[in-house]
Amino acid sequence: MTEPDWHKSTYSGDNDNCVEVADNLPLVHVRDTKNHARGELTATPAAWSAFTAFARTYAG
Is the whole-model pTM more than 0.70? Predict the structure, then answer.
């Protein structure tokens, strides 16, 4: 099994209040940058794309 390749959003800048995403697997995994113990949210690539497109419309 491939290990997740975690990265922070480029929109986060130096802010630590963000999420990390691993999208190098068959599913997309999302976790809190500061608290990995809280677990991960897992979504299909299509669901993640729909979510990020929706979020961009409200990002201002």
Answer: yes
pLDDT in tens, 39-56: 999 999 999 999 989 988
Q: Look at residue 2 and tell me if it is in a domain.
A: no
Range of the domain at 32: 19-57
Three-class DSSP category at 35: coil
Instruction: List strands edge to edge, sheet with 40-43.
Output: 6-8, 19-22, 28-32, 40-43
Count of structural domains, the chain: 1
Is the Cα torsion angle 21, 54, 48, 40 positive or negative in sign?
Answer: positive
Let me know if residue 8 belongs to a domain.
Answer: no
